[in-house]
Amino acid sequence: MVSTQGSTPRGDLVPAAIVGLLGTRGPSSRVDIARSLGLSPATVTQVTKDLIARGVVEEQASVPSRGGRPAKLLGLAARGGVALGAKVTADHVAVVTVELDGSVRTSTEHPFTPNAPDAVHKLADILASQANSMDEQLLGVGVGVPGSVDSQDSGFVHAPTLGWQAAPVGPVLRNALGAPVLVDNDVNTLAAAEQVYGIGREHSSYLVVTIGRGIGCAIVLDKAIYRGATSTAGEIGHIPVSIDGPVCGCGNTGCLEAHIGAAGLLRTARERGLVSARGRLATLLRAARDGDPKAQDVYREAGELLGRTLAGIALTLDPEVVVLMGEGIDAWEHWRPGFDSALRRCIAPTRGELPVVVEPWSEDQWARGAASLVLASPFDASGNGGEQSNLVRARLGNRAVEVAR
């Protein structure tokens, strides 16, 4: 994470932030640590001296500097623990265990019926089977859901697609697992992953936009995920883009998602005779890749609608960069022509070139994003995770000391 105004960790965060940085980035010089965390060199020297004395951090190889003595790299003396991440969907739960450096140690998938009366307790059972095998290695549990969450810390979920209304996900899981649990909207979890491992290292304000079954967006401003007054910021899929458009899953008509989400693309393809009544979206993509201009038009039009919408959002929020990802990225080559032209045409000339980064997608990314809620805790100067982040930081420090002994 690069230093920006307002991003410097509070004093009580500094040791955990340094341990987290070395765990997620690997060996770094004191100068790089200071620059990345927005700390003074003197503070880094003092805190790392204590961490070295405690056996948490060790000096490693030296690297050339721009002048003077070679800079010594600092690295973790031992593994700092792992995070458990779970992505909840309408029919299954994807679960991963993730190392501090972001590598996925294990990945499993479990059938799940979210509208069952005891669904949250069943989720706890699924996660307990994984968490119990980790013992003292577990730093915490992150959960991503397709809905709104009151806060990462308390974890009450409103998710109509799951049939959940004020579901006490956080309290139930914490009671069952005996570990810190952070819960958030699934797209926000991807933004958390970008903060620790991706774009967020170099930028303080950005958008993460997902295309696939739905159209989602996470907003990061000054290094913090922006949640809004009711914790629902970023629901760009429900921006009305047409007057008498198709009915959306939210109950309104003409929403962006109703036009260009997976169901919307499939409906358009069927209306134009490109896919049979029982056909699937894969048929449309195959036709587009085979050069069918009508199939390509469906994606081009979707890209144009997305580009126009994001131009308006970019003019409102002025992000440094936009990251595009999600299950629908496998068809991006066909979205791109419409998207690029619409975005550049609609955005104000004074805004300049808005960088757009398209990231490859894998199913593990949702669950890895959820784990990143835990792994971002050492850098949580804005307090997104509340007491749960404090508990993760305590475990991180204790774990590093115990293993280093």
Lay out the secondary structure.
Elements lengths: L13 H12 L2 E2 H8 L3 H13 L3 E7 L7 E6 L5 E7 L3 E8 L4 E8 L7 H13 L6 E8 L2 E2 L6 E4 L4 E5 H9 L3 E5 H12 L8 E6 L3 E7 L2 E2 L30 H5 L1 H10 L9 H9 L3 H25 L3 E5 L6 H15 L9 E3 L5 H12 L10 H19 L1
Parallel strand pairs: 4-7, 7-11, 12-15, 15-16
Antiparallel strand pairs: 1-3, 2-3, 4-5, 5-6, 8-9, 9-10, 12-13, 13-14
Helix pairs in contact: 1-13, 2-3, 4-5, 6-12, 9-10, 10-11
Overall 3D form: globular
Look at the structure and name the CATH superfamily of the largest domain: ATPase, nucleotide binding domain
Q: Estimate the helix proportion, in percent.
A: 40-55%
CATH class of the largest domain: Alpha Beta
Order of helices and strands: HEHHEEEEEHEEEEHEHEEEHHHHEHEHH
Give the name of the CATH architecture of the largest domain: 2-Layer Sandwich
pLDDT < 50 stretches: 1-6
Structural class: alpha/beta
Mean pLDDT, rounded to whole units? Answer: 87
- Spatial sequence of strands, sheet with the most strands: 6-5-4-7-11
Please compute the radius of gyration using only Cα atoms.
Answer: 22 Å
Figure out the total of helices.
Answer: 13
Per DSSP E runs of 2 or more residues, the count of β-strands stands at 16
User: Could you give the distance between the termini?
Assistant: 29 Å
Beta percentage is 15-25%
Family: Belongs to the ROK (NagC/XylR) family.
Protein name: ROK family protein
InterPro entries: ATPase_NBD (IPR043129), ROK (IPR000600), ROK_cs (IPR049874), WH-like_DNA-bd_sf (IPR036388), WH_DNA-bd_sf (IPR036390)
